[in-house]
Amino acid sequence: MAKQPMLKFVKISRDMPEKRGAETRKEDFDEIYAEFASAKAEEQASRCSQCGVPYCQSHCPLHNNIPDWLNLTATGRLEEAYAVSQATNTFPEICGRICPQDRLCEGNCVIEQSGHGTVTIGSVEKYITDTAWEKGWVKPASPAVERSESVGIIGAGPGGLAAADMLRRAGVQVTVYDRYDRGGGLLTYGIPGFKLEKEIVMRRMKQLEDGGVRFVMNCTVGEDMSFEEIRNQHDAVIVATGVYKSRDLTGPGAGAKGIVKAIDYLTASNRVANFGDTVPEYDSGELNANGKNVVVIGGGDTAMDCVRTAIRQGATSVKCLYRRDRANMPGSQRETQNAEEEGVQFEWLTAPKSFKGDPVSAVVVDRMRLGLPDASGRQSPEIIDGSEYDEPADIVIKALGFEAEELPTLWGAPELEVTRWGTIRAEFTSGRTALPGVYAVGDIVRGASLVVWAIRDGRDCAEHVLQDLDKQAVIAAE
Fold first, then answer.
1. Residues in domain FAD/NAD(P)-binding (predicted)?
2. What's the average model confidence in pLDDT over 9-30?
3. All domains of the chain, ordered by start, with CATH?
4. pLDDT over threshold 60, residue 19
5. The model's pTM
6. How far is residue 171 from each of residues 149, 220, 366, measured CA to CA in Å?
7. Most exposed residue of 7, 326, 372, 440, measured as fewest CB within 10 angstroms of its CB?
8. pLDDT tens digits for 328-356?
9. Which of 116, 151, 134, 96 is nearest to 46 (CA)?
10. What DSSP designation does 229 have?
11. pLDDT, tens digit, 9 for 90 and up, residues 76-98
C-alpha cells in the first residue's frame, strides 16, 4: 500500500517560517518572514486533512483550490501546485504575503477547530509561487489569437491588474491608466516593504508589460485625460481606482500642522525606503517620524502599517489609539502582535477629543468603555466622563479608513451613478454600471476592503467583459 502523504497533523505540529527578531527587523524595511525550505514546505503541507468540505477554500474570496495544491506540494509536484494556484489567483505570491489568513482560510481550517493548529496555508502559497518565479514557470500572456477589441482600465491596483491579466490572456488589447508613476496602487505605495517587498510587485508589472498590457502612467483622469476621451478610445472601460479619500478627524485643533493622512505618510515612506525617491515632505520632517513622539489613530491594518513604519523610521515613541478593545479591533491580530514585539504601545479604549498646539504638541484623549451593541452588533464605545488626559505628540497620523472620491464630479460624468457612500453603483459579479460599456471593480464598488476581494472582482468582471464583447461581435456580424 502506498504511503499516505497527507493527514499528518496529529504527528507534525504547526510551524511557521522563521521570523526575524524584533530588534533586527526594526532596522530595515525588508520582509520579516523567511522562506520555507523545500522539505519544510512539504512537511507543513502534509498536515492538511483533505476535508470533504474544505472550509479553507469556501472562506477564500477567490475559492482557491487549497487542498489540492497542498497535496501537490506535499508530494513534491510543485510546478503542478503552482498551476493549480495560479488558475484561480492572478497574484498568489502577493496574497500569500498580505492576506489576513487568520481571518480567512487559516482561520477556518478544520484541524485548527480541532485543536491541532491550522495549516500554514499562506506561507506555503508564498513558497509555491516564489519557487515558480525562480524556476521560470511564470510566463507572460501569450494569447493564441489577438482580438481587435480594446479595453481601458482606470487604476493599476490589484483589481485593475487582475482584470488586465485575464483580458490580455484572451487576446484583448488592454491599456491601463494610473495617476502614479509606478503601477500597483496600494500594493506599491500603501503597503510597507516589511509586509510586501516592492520587487514582488514590480516583477508582476513587468510580466504584464511583457505580455502586451500598455500602461499610461502619471495620468489623472479629469485632468490629463477626460473620462469621455478614454471611453471613446476603447470598446469597454473598467473603473478600478480604489478609494483614496481619507476619513477626517473632528474636534478643536484637528487642522493643526503635524496631523497627517496615513496614505500620505505611507506613500512618502515607501518612495524613500523602497525606491530611493526624493520626497521633500519626508526630508523636511513633515512625513518622517524620526526622533518624534508618534500617535496613530485607528485600529485597522492601515494603522498597523503606520505604527510599524514609524518604528523603522526611528521614532522616539509610537502609540496607537483605538476606541474599542483588542478583541474588537478590525486589524489583523498577527500584525498587532508584530507591532507589539517591535515596541509599539497600544492604548485600547481611547479616542481623541482635541489637539493642542500648532504644530501639534499633544492629543487630548478620552478614555472609553464599551456599552450596548449598535446596529452592526458590536458594542458601542462610550466616553467615560472626566477621564481625559494629554498624550504628547509631535506627529499624529490619521488612519481612520478611506472613502470614495467624488468621481462623477471629478470626471465630469454626472451620469455615472454612485451609492449614498459615494462608491460606484455596479452590478454584482459583472461590474456593469449604468453607463453602457463601463464597468467598475474593487474598492470603488465595495468601499475599502481586502486586496484579495479586488482580485476576485477584477477576474469576475473580465469574464463578463469578454462575454459582452462576444455578444457585440455576433450582433455586428449579423
1. 151-458
2. 86
3. 22-135 (1.10.1060.10), 150-243+404-477 (3.50.50.60), 252-400 (3.50.50.60)
4. yes
5. 0.94
6. 9, 27, 58
7. 372
8. 988 888 899 999 999 999 999 999 999 99
9. 116
10. H
11. 999 999 999 999 999 999 999 99
**Which grid cell sits at 218?**
502619471
Please work out, in degrees rounded to the nearest 5, the angle formed at the alpha carbon of residue 412 by the alpha carbons of 406 and 416: 65
Amino acid, single-letter form, for residue 124? V
The length of the chain, given as a count of residues = 478
Mean pLDDT of 424-450: 97
What CA–CA distance (Å, rounded) separates 124 from 138? 17
238: cell is 473598467
DSSP assignment letter at 225: B
Residue 62 contacts residue 88 (beta carbons within 8 Å): yes
Burial class (CB in 10 A: 0-12, 13-18, 19+), 161: buried
Cβ-Cβ contacts under 8 Å for 248 (sequence gap 6 or more): 254, 398, 400
Q: Which of 171, 157, 185, 173 is nearest to 236 (CA)?
A: 173
Could you give phi then psi for residue 113, rounded to 5 degrees?
-65, -25
Using alpha carbons, select from 155, 332, 304 the residue that is nearest to residue 244.
155
Distance CA(180)–CA(258), nearest Å, equals 25
Consecutive H or E run containing 305: helix 301-312
Whether 144 contacts 222, CB under 8 Å: no
pLDDT tens readout for residues 178-230: 999 999 999 999 999 999 999 999 999 999 999 999 999 999 999 999 999 99
